[in-house]
């Protein structure tokens, strides 16, 4: 699914070596989300990587719900994850799996570890387990229950499963090395008792496997060859390998770590995103200001732009913070090529064209895209009363102002050269309308003979205009790394101006029929219709602001920058 040839990276090198040396015959990767929240742009990096590698090496990629933590998981999240992966453009085919489907097999491997003397039932409390574990500078101590017999361990573990003990009364722990410098190897917990119904297994289980135990074994069950995860799991790799080595698994997957994606001016942890949603700091998981894929979809980000972004940032081993601008540039590049143009006025100022007949409608044929004739053209009506942008008129213009001012002239995009004859004010002294005239010799926007009009502005015919609400978005946070501000709650750093709602905006009539895709509103940015729109009330989101390279290259006359 990559838009360009995939760039080399260390994981591709490992896989190529594995295939060339014959160590692996095929490539099987997986994307293993926990269904405890909606996917975000960080997950997209992992999805593009895992599904991309499978495609490039003619292998397959599984979608696995890593659902071993019943308290926080739900069907709603699992369904949203599937929808998001599909929307991004990837297909798991028949390879949809659930760690919860492996509970019985995982349980059998736990008994195997007990029988081989590699696991025991511990009866320390959670607090005691923590104390016994020691710290980075202090070795752990063995639990007094570590020397229980195999028979006693098997009996206790089976009774744990049967529900004979209270939550927290016992755990199953591996017997590895309590003095290991790697804390993950100090007899990690494999199972805990938790009387919580699971969204898939209901109350069939009251013991649940820990992630570190379930993950490598789930990979092995599915025949995953390359188990790609983020860097924070590097210290867990010896444990991953220990389970693969000590359980009678059917395959030997290899864990490979890469640097997670971090983006400026946002947060990516699901816990923090959930806090923003439940605390009503945003409208929901699909709030267009969030880095969630549902949010970006609603905002109008094309999935291809997100894939390009993931390709562009590359795959490495060093954590970094990527500028949000890089993502926005990918969105802009995509939309600049693909989005049809339209005219809309966000802050309308009424213009009466005094020398144009009141009952006449003139239709101008306007190209939908300055660089792509295949996108065709449309008819745009012109009448005696039009709206222009308030910003495009100044009573006392500074030098170099090429838009409208009293006595000045400007080009109405695709229509006529307009001259401002008179400014009309209301009782409060506010400008209520402009009285203007057109030069009939400039039909279609041509320059008058012997003169060149520099400024071009957009406009909408007043009687034809659709009224709409337009939502403009800014950064969600006021600082680049809101998660990294020591001693400050990240919610204090929210940008109070991240959402600006404009009402009474006027759109050209063709936008009534607009589909899900984004449009360029000339000189204003890219916009898409929001799901809040109804037959009576249109709502548009600004996807991203404009920097139109077609204009920069002289590809069209679509005007001075707003
Ligand atoms: P969080 O810490 O926000 O809860 P998570 O990593 O626990 O995220 P999972 O559902 O377990 O969320 O993630 C599924 C997969 O996506 C994992 O393989 C994880 O490594 C990967 N992933 C999560 N966040 C990022 C990120 N920011 N960049 C790249 N990959 C990520
Ligand atoms: Mg996780």
Written overview of the protein:
The structure is a single chain. This protein is of the alpha/beta class. The protein folds into three domains: 10-258, HUPs (Rossmann fold), CATH 3.40.50.620; 270-338 and 468-553, Ribosomal Protein L25, Chain P (Beta Barrel); 349-463, Ribosomal Protein L25, Chain P. The protein has 13 helices and 27 strands. The protein has helices spanning 10-20, 41-56, 75-88, 103-115, 126-133, 150-162, 211-222, 237-246, 270-278, 293-299, 303-313, 324-338, 549-552, and strands spanning 28-31, 60-65, 96-98, 119-122, 171-174, 189-193, 207-209, 226-230, 254-258, 261-263, 320-322, 341-342, 344-345, 348-353, 362-367, 377-382, 385-389, 409-412, 417-425, 431-439, 456-457, 460-461, 466-473, 499-507, 519-521, 525-529, 538-544. It has a seven-stranded mixed sheet with strand order 12-25-26-27-23-24-13. Strands 21-18-19-20-14-17-22 form a seven-stranded mixed sheet, with no helix packed on it. Strands 4-5-6-7 form a four-stranded antiparallel sheet. Helix 11 crosses helix 12. It is elongated, with a radius of gyration of 31 Å. The site of adenosine-5'-triphosphate (ATP) has 15 residues, from helix 2 and strand 8.
